[in-house]
Amino acid sequence: MNHSLKLKKPLAFFDLETTGIDPVNDRIVEISMLKAMPDGSTSSKTFRINPEIKIPYETTLIHGISDEDVKDCPPFKKLAPEILAFLEGCDLAGYNSVKFDLPMLVEECMRVGVDFDFSKRKMVDAQKIFHYMEPRNLAAAFKFYCGKEMSEEGRAHSAEFDTFVTFQVLNEQVKRYENQERKDEKGLMFVPVQNDVDVLDKLSRGNQFDLANRMVYNDKGLVVFNFGKHKGKVVTDVFRAEPSYYDWMMKGDFARDTKRKLTDLKLSMSGMLQR
Fold it and tell me: Could you give the strand order of the β-sheet that contains 28-36, starting from the edge strand earlier in sequence?
C-alpha cells in the first residue's frame, strides 16, 4: 500500500479498541498501527491485548471483541515495548485521536510504568479536517438534504430563516430515512425514523431526563445521575442514603430545570418514577 503524503519523517496512523471511553478506568483491547514512510511505502502491525478487566457486553457489540477473544492474549505491559518501538521517531495520526486514542494510549503507558513522550511529535487528526472541511451545521444539512445553499434562499442565521430551513430539512430527512432499519446498541434491528412525532421525540431525546443531562434514564427506565460521585446511581436511592445531596444540588449552580426535576423526584419518592 503506497501513499502520496509529503512527509519529512514517518507518520504512524493508529486506532484503538477499548473496554470503554474513560482513559482512567478503561483499557485497550486492540491497537492497530500503520506507518507511512517518506519514500511512499507503508508497514503495519495489529495487536490484540488482554485488558485484564471484563469487556462490557455493550462494548463488545460495537467492536466485536469479547473476553473469550482476548483471554490468551498478552497484557499491555508485555506488548508496550514492541508498540513503542514501532512508533519510535514517528509523528502520529488518527481519527478523533486527539480526544480519545492518544489520551488512552498515554494513560495505558503510564499505568504500566512506560514513558511515552509525545510532546515533540506532530499529531494529525483526520476527524478535525473532516469537520472543518465538511461542516455539520444547519447550512450543511440544508445543502445535503434540500440541495440548496442558504445564501440562495435568504438571510442565514436569522431566527426566522433558520426556522424555515430547519422545517425543510426535517421534512426531507423523514422522506429519506422513513422506515429504514438500523441496529441499536444491543445489536437489535429497529426503525429510528418514522413519520411520527412520538418516534422522532424518542430518537431526539434519547435517555434524557433533564435538559442539562445531569440525570438520565437507565436501561430499566429509572432515573440515574449522569455526573459526579453518584454517576449511574438511581437518584431516589441516593436521596434515601444521603438526604443532604438533594440540598447540595438545590443550593448549587445547576439549571432551574434540573432543580425542578430533582424536586419532582423528591416528591415522588413514595413510588419510583419510571419512563
Answer: 42-48, 28-36, 11-18, 91-94, 123-125
Q: How far is CA 156 from CA 136, 169, 201, in A?
A: 15, 14, 26
Q: Is the model's pLDDT at 162 over the cut of 80?
A: no
Count CB neighbours of 18 within 10 A.
Answer: 25
Indicate the domain borders of the chain.
11-130, 138-204, 207-267
Rounded to 5 degrees, φ, ψ at 94 are -175, -170
Q: Which residue has the cell 483526520?
A: 126
In DSSP terms, 75 is beta-bridged to 50
Burial of 226 (0-12, 13-18, 19+ CB in 10 A): buried
**Burial label, 213 (beta-carbon count in 10 A; 0-12, 13-18, 19+):** middle
Predicted local distance difference test score (pLDDT) of residue 170? 87
Measuring CA to CA, which residue among 211, 200, 206, 143 is closest to residue 177? 200
Q: What is the pLDDT of residues 106-129, one digit of tens each?
A: 989 988 999 887 777 898 988 888
Q: Which CATH architecture has domain 11-130?
A: 2-Layer Sandwich (3.30)
Q: Quick one: how far is CA 161 from the chain centroid?
A: 31
Please state which of the ranges 37-46, 60-69, 152-161, 256-265 shows the lowest mean pLDDT. 152-161
pTM, whole model, 2 decimals? 0.60
Q: Which residue has the higher pLDDT, 135 or 234?
A: 234
Residue 27 pLDDT exceeds 90: yes
Residue for grid cell 441516593: 238
